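thoughts on these tokens:
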Amino acid sequence: MWGALRRKDRGEDRFEALWNALDRVLTDLQEGFAKKPGALLIARLRESGLWALLLEGPQYRVAEPGVRPARRGGPGGPGRQNVALW
């Protein structure tokens, strides 16, 4: 998910391809085909090349413009981070 968010942040939307892979695994799960849905998802993402694409590149915090990282020990207790839902 974070890889897709970072790609979108750079102007490259990969959410449709990710959604299609998730949707297919959910369908396989409902049909009784997927015994290990997580492993099946990763295998399909690797097969399509999307897995490597989502993992490549620098890792950085993805946020809306103007959202500052939460301070440690601020509201929410020590070590907890404030999360803005949008």
